[in-house]
Specification:
Elements: H1 15-39, H2 51-67, E1 71-76, E2 84-89, E3 97-103, E4 123-125, E5 128-130, H3 138-155, E6 161-167, H4 177-183, H5 185-188, E7 192-199, E8 207-212, E9 214-223, E10 229-230, H6 231-234, H7 241-250, H8 273-281, H9 286-293, H10 309-314, E11 318-325, E12 335-336, E13 339-348, H11 354-367, E14 374-383, E15 386-387, H12 393-406, E16 411-415, H13 422-428, E17 434-440, E18 452-454, H14 455-476
Parallel strand pairs: 3-6, 3-7, 7-17, 8-16
Antiparallel strand pairs: 1-2, 2-6, 4-5, 5-18, 8-15, 9-13, 9-14, 10-12, 11-13
Helix pairs in contact: 1-3, 1-14, 3-14, 12-14
Length: 477
């Protein structure tokens, strides 16, 4: 186990917190072994992958929660969905109930040969644990386990009531989450949520994520022929559906990379003065950002050139072509294909209505294919952006817990990604506040090749959640 990369913890000499910290560190090797066992399970929830592996992952998480000392550990099921996992500990009288969220499903690994080591075989290199799900989000599962186990080992009890909900479909948009909430509302109901599925600003610099972009996506199919044709015998007068698709996709954005659909950004909310002040406080460095992103020399940043890069990343909509069905180069021939298909993912800014945005995207795609090619558009996910109410006292409590564990003050950041489950859970429980923390950092490469977890920051995240339980109990009193 690598050593923590941050200063010593400051628990103020509190004997209870000191004992909890010692118990957490004593159990850390075992928690890492549990994390590695989870990483070895290829729990890809996307269509076309083995659903049995997602179930095996859920069962492993259930057993892990039970072993930590949590009670009533079991799978949650609903028709047509990958299983989620639930457990609880509800013996803290007159204390708040905290719902701890993470997800056990992972993204597809991509080309395994592109990884430095097999994606589902965890390997440590230079203080980082590599493997799909090592950070996103099986490390989050183990943060909850480590924090709970430390309190139970040190004190035999938790200072707050805890419910743990580990989802199995987050990476595919949480489409069945409303059904889970409806079926298990009493089990999941809580006073606040702690969602361990976000990122720190840098290694050793803890962050609270206060805003997330929303999401819509769609598939578009362009068809011009009822069968493939020899491109030499028919190319020229007969349009190429694949070329038509690429022209359609290219027209989706302007010369700066901004979404070019008329009216699409009309409901984007401008950043508040407080949000702009938070952007300025982060001391953004473009050269560092370019290095973290792996941008090649000469490649420009895109988006509105008048907007701060972090504003473009967290508070502006953006479109990404995340998949194209077309002949691969190795299998290509001089052929006009009859049809081609693409999947488009659009991140939404705070203030945007996802149903309106999805309709605008689909209508535009339907009406702008060149050469009279036939277009079929299938709408997909639709999720709101999230903006936290930072005046809620839970955020001050979290600041204290994170700063004590990391030995560094907290910063507030946005994330350009989306966590679809926040809105339905929060609304179901009377707008319960959602606290977003995480274990990722700019080198994590979540969803990408060589995903990894900084082990020192992971330990600090575990300790921060253990401290948070105490802060929340004191807050209630």
């Amino acid at each position: 186990m690598s050593e923590p990369s941050t200063p010593l913890d400051r628990d103020g000499g509190d004997p209870v917190l000191g004992a909890v910290r010692q118990a957490l560190d004593a159990g850390l090797a075992g928690h890492r072994a549990s994390l590695e066992r989870l990483v070895r399970i290829p729990s890809v929830s996307a269509p076309g992958f083995d659903a049995a592996e997602v179930r095996r992952s859920a069962e492993a998480v259930r057993d892990l929660l039970a072993a930590s000392g949590l009670e009533h550990a079991r799978l949650l099921e609903t028709d047509g969905a990958h299983p989620a996992v639930y457990a609880d500990w509800l013996h803290a009288q007159d204390a708040p109930t905290v719902l701890l969220y993470a997800h056990h499903d992972v993204q597809p690994p991509g080309d395994p040969s592109a990884w430095s080591s097999p994606p589902f075989e965890p390997v440590e290199r230079n203080g980082r644990l590599y493997g799909r799900g090592s950070a996103d989000d099986k490390a989050g599962v183990c943060v909850h386990v480590a924090a709970v186990a430390a309190w139970l080992a040190a004190r035999g009890a938790l200072p707050v009531n805890v419910k743990v909900f580990v989802e199995g479909e987050e990476e595919t948009g949480s489409a069945n989450l409303p059904a889970f909430v409806a079926a298990y509302a009493d089990d999941l109901r809580a006073d606040l949520m702690v969602i361990t599925d976000s990122a720190n600003w840098k290694v050793g610099v803890p962050a609270i994520t206060y805003l997330l972009r929303g999401l819509v996506d769609a598939e578009v199919s362009v068809r011009g022929l009822d069968h493939a044709l020899h491109s030499g015998l028919f190319g020229g007068p007969v349009p190429d559906p694949l070329a038509g698709l690429t022209k359609l996709l290219a027209a989706l954005t302007d010369e700066h990379g901004r979404i070019a659909v008329p009216g699409f950004a009309d409901d984007v909310r401008e950043p508040t003065p407080a949000e702009r002040a938070r952007l300025d406080a982060l001391s953004f460095d473009e050269a560092t950002f370019r290095a973290e992103a792996g941008l090649l020399d000469g490649v420009e940043l895109v988006g509105d050139p008048a907007a701060h890069p972090l504003e473009r990343l967290w508070m502006r909509p953006t479109a990404t072509i995340i998949g194209i069905d077309a002949p691969g180069v190795e299998e290509s021939s001089n052929t006009l294909v009859p049809a081609a298909r693409a999947r488009i993912s659009v991140r939404l800014a705070p203030g945007q209505d996802p149903l309106r945005a999805r309709a605008a995207l689909c209508d535009w795609l339907q009406g702008h294919a060149p050469w009279g090619l036939h277009v079929e558009v299938t709408p997909g996910a639709a999720a709101h952006a999230f903006v936290a109410d930072l005046d809620h006292p839970v955020f001050a409590a979290a600041e204290r817990a994170l700063a004590a564990a990391y030995g560094h003050p907290v910063v507030y950041t946005g994330v350009g990604g989306t966590i679809p489950m926040i809105e339905p859970l929060s609304q179901a429980f009377g707008d319960a506040p959602a606290l977003l923390t995480g274990v990722e950092d700019p080198d994590t490469r979540a969803h990408g090749i060589d995903e990894s977890l900084h082990l020192g920051d992971w330990r600090n995240a575990c300790l921060a959640e253990a401290y948070l339980f105490s802060e929340l109990a004191e807050l209630e009193r």
